[in-house]
Design brief:
By secondary structure, the chain is mostly helical. Helices cover 69% and strands 0% of the residues. The protein contains 14 helices and no strands. Helix 12 crosses helix 14 (257-274). The chain is elongated, with a radius of gyration of 21 Å.
Length: 276
């Protein structure tokens, strides 16, 4: 199926348009749109604004950085829009504002859904889809964005299939595993976890490892599962990843000495293949 046909038929397309329409409410701090008589910005000016804004923000000049990035974003610069989305989503130098982030990510997704997955900017578009999926999954308090797992699944599925995004594949698998947005389906979850795990998505590696160790949705493969959990535990960071380290410790206790020896062999093979 061609991407244009997919966009027309996919429920994700309708959702992106809905996201875009909700993002038209202008931020009070946003610059007024230029009058019809104003000359359009030149591509070089927009690019320079993005570069100078990024440099200023990194250097700690938040005001100058935001102003320049806003100018570039207002003039359609995809990465500037994505960057502002991330700034407000993460509270990076500003007060966290999930709804403002949602608006920027909506602009990126709605205007660039058909971007070739082979272009450098595709990763920003895919990430915007993933961010929107997360917002629809949890909802944004005091806004029209309510918890809606089905919409979240549509967005994750689009980024997972068209862009092949590993984070989207992980989130899609988790929804199938939990039975949120669709009927619980451990086998489908395992397939998506496997795809993401092979791309180095460590949370997917952990979930796949758990499923293999326990034979949940896949044939029980204790040694292979321990290999995936070892990779995930090595990549885990911070308190939010404690569940991964706990899952690894439990798997070590549950598996036999022979399984652990085989797991080390699998791990060595995996690392050699990844470094080729």
């Amino acid at each position: 199926m061609q991407i244009s046909e997919f966009i027309r038929t996919s429920a994700a397309a309708a959702l992106v348009l809905t996201c875009a329409s909700s993002a038209v409410a202008l931020d009070p701090q946003k610059k007024a749109a230029p009058s019809a008589a104003a000359a359009p910005s030149k591509p070089a000016e927009i690019l320079d604004a993005f570069k100078s804004g990024t440099q200023a923000y990194i250097a700690g000049d938040r005001s100058k950085g935001l102003s320049a990035l806003q100018y570039a974003a207002d003039n359609g610069h995809l990465v500037a829009q994505w960057k502002l989305g991330r700034i407000y989503a993460d509270g990076d130098g500003v007060k966290s504002d999930p709804y403002k982030a949602y608006q920027y990510f909506s602009k990126v997704a709605s205007k660039n859904a058909e971007t070739s997955p082979f272009l450098p900017q595709a990763r920003f578009v895919a990430n915007a889809f993933v961010a929107l999926g997360a917002y629809h999954l949890a909802g944004i308090p005091n806004t029209e964005v309510k918890p809606d797992p089905r919409r979240a699944m549509q967005l994750f599925r689009y980024a997972a299939t068209y862009f092949g995004d590993a984070d989207a594949q992980y989130h899609l698998a988790q929804l199938y595993l939990d039975g949120r947005g669709a009927q619980k389906d451990s086998r489908t979850a395992a397939r998506w976890f496997f795809s993401a795990a092979n791309k180095g998505q460590y949370q997917a590696q952990a979930r796949l490892g758990q499923m293999m160790v326990h034979g949940d949705g896949v044939p029980k493969q204790s040694a292979r599962g321990l290999m995936w959990l070892t990779l995930a535990a090595d990549a885990a960071q911070g308190k939010h990843d404690e569940w991964i380290r706990k899952a690894y410790d439990e798997a070590v206790q549950e598996t036999s000495q022979d399984d652990r020896i085989v797991a080390r062999s699998y791990l060595e093979q995996h690392l050699r293949a990844a470094n080729r």
